[in-house]
Amino acid sequence: MRSECVLGAASDSGQEAPRDTWFLQGWKASRRFLIKGSVAGGAVYLVYDQELLGPSDKSQAALQKAGEVVPPAMYQFSQYVCQQTGLQIPQLPAPPKIYFPIRDSWNAGI
């Protein structure tokens, strides 16, 4: 006599069949898609909100603002991680000063 495996039923070997149905597998895949789509949508909104695709002087001001804000935020985050986990993160060297004038290279290829 042939034994057939039914989802959720016990097999002859005494092990249970996997309980993930096609619906749950589809939900897991769509959840990943929703998370990635939300991150991408947030990035598009940030670019639009900060007017990064607008005039070059606004783009350069936003890049300069990011250069001033990001290093202290990374330091605060590393201090938070050290405090929460008890790990010691070695002091990193200061980031290099980056000066990239967008206005000088704007439409340079035309």
TrEMBL record:
Topology versus the membrane: Single-pass membrane protein
GO CC, one annotated term: mitochondrial crista junction
Keyword Mitochondrion: yes
Keywords: Membrane, Mitochondrion, Mitochondrion inner membrane, Transmembrane, Transmembrane helix
Cell compartments where the protein resides: Mitochondrion inner membrane
Record has Transmembrane as a keyword: yes
Source species, domain of life: Eukaryota
GO biological process: cristae formation
Record function comment: Component of the MICOS complex, a large protein complex of the mitochondrial inner membrane that plays crucial roles in the maintenance of crista junctions, inner membrane architecture, and formation of contact sites to the outer membrane.
Subunit annotation: Component of the mitochondrial contact site and cristae organizing system (MICOS) complex.
Entry's family note: Belongs to the MICOS complex subunit Mic13 family.
Protein name, UniProt field: MICOS complex subunit MIC13
Organism from which the protein derives: Pan paniscus
